[in-house]
Amino acid sequence: MADKLRHKAGMKGSQRQLATVIDLNKCMGCQSCTVACKNIWTQRPGTEHMRWANVATYPGRGYPRDWQSKGGGYDAQSNPAQGELINLVDAGDNLQFNHDAVFHEENGQSAHLQPTTSRGEKPQWGYNWDEDQASGSWPNAFFFYIPRKCNHCSNAPCIEACSRNAISKREDGIVLIDQDRCTGHRHCVEACPYKMVYFNPVTKRSEKCIECFPRVEQGIAPACNRQCVGRTRAYGYLDDEDNQVHKLVKRWKVALPLHPECGTEPNVFYVPPMSTRAYDESGRLTQEMRIPMEILESYFGPAVGDALNTLVEQRQRRKRGESSELMDILISRRWEDRFAQFTNEPV
Questions:
Q1: What confidence tens digit (pLDDT) does each residue in 133-185 have?
Q2: Cα separations (Å) of 12 from 82, 168, 259, 278?
Q3: What burial class does residue 228 get, using C-beta atoms within 10 Å of its C-beta: 0-12 exposed, 13-18 middle, 19+ buried?
Q4: For residue range 232-258, what is the model confidence (pLDDT) as tens digits?
Q5: Residue 237 included in any domain
Q6: Is residue 106 part of a domain?
Q7: Long-range interactions of 101-104: CB distance < 8 A, separation 24+
Q8: Quick check: is 105 in a domain?
Q9: Which helix (H) or strand (E) holds 277?
């Protein structure tokens, strides 16, 4: 058992760690990251339901459906926490549409676009089924978007759970599944608290985001990051003190991991959303946030309050005409500044 544990620890280790920071104040839910990833990596048989990169509306059921209640990760004593599998419906299914009947058979007045599941049934759920549905109550409704992908965790539970030792970290921190070793036991799917591992029913293997490592090796940022039209993302090594990832996570401490309580040490970080002010019963603006602090803490942990205070303070500095390195980073006038040494052209 001791040898096995030492082996797993080695498989989770890396010399450096690549990381992504996403500013939720700038994400507009356009799905450019989702489309960029899907066009490159998940157009093979059995991957139709997979969205390694995805954007969902929160608070909501998220993607995959209800992933936050399906367990995984580690408990407070650092023991593996029991997780559940996700099914095809949870992952959005492979919906089919009657495009021919609507567009090509000259009966557009009577035929309407109707989605069906991969089995030809009425859908129970689909990707972004609850997109843009607000929480809260009138007039203080609120929501925000969270783009997600594999976190390439420093304490990855999928590596711990794999009975075939098919999952490991590279020296740059990217977590990969060896398709030759994987036999589809799906313990990794159960173990991941973010449910970012998917089962391919055609190949009978587990698959997940590979961080576009063929691009990374050529100095090109991952497609989801590079194709973001809102410049919401920064990418680079966590230990590189000159890049924006290090500055936002380590220096300014305004970029936080999602569900840090899971103990996985994820390497996708989020600048939390700065809520608009709420109205009182008479319709007047107050100093209260529309998004309750307990909601933000449930996603990003107790450090979110300090992060928001820093963001507000630095915004006020800029309003007074004073300089602010943090605001300069977040405004991001030059896209090249976002990606450190990963700015080569993908063509």
A1: 999 999 999 999 999 999 999 999 999 999 999 999 999 999 999 999 999 99
A2: 20, 6, 20, 44
A3: buried
A4: 999 999 999 999 999 999 999 999 999
A5: yes
A6: no
A7: none
A8: no
A9: strand 277-279
The phi, psi pair for 67, rounded to 5°, reads -60, -30
CA-wise closest residue to 248 among 228, 264, 226, 272 = 272
Tell me how far apart the alpha carbons of residues 268 and 245 are, in angstroms, rounded to a whole number. Answer: 10
12: nearest Cα among 190, 214, 174, 139: 174
Q: What is the 3-state secondary structure (H, E, C) of 279-297?
A: ECCCCCEEEEECCCHHHHH
Helix (H, G, I), strand (E, B) or coil at 153: coil
Contact 309, 302 (CB under 8 A): no
Contact status, residue 248 vs residue 21, Cβ threshold 8 Å: yes
Angle at 137 between CA 135 and CA 140, to 5 degrees: 90
Q: Which domain holds residue 293?
A: 2-92+127-338
Rounded Cα–Cα distance for residues 174 and 212 (Å): 9
Give the type of residue at 178.
Answer: D
Is 41 part of any domain?
yes
In this structure, what are the phi and psi dihedrals at residue 226, rounded to the nearest 5 degrees?
-65, -35
Q: What is the CATH number of the domain that holds 200?
A: 3.30.70.20
Number of domains in the chain: 1
Torsion, Cα of 25, 31, 34, 38 (10° steps):
-170
Identify the pLDDT of residue 12.
95
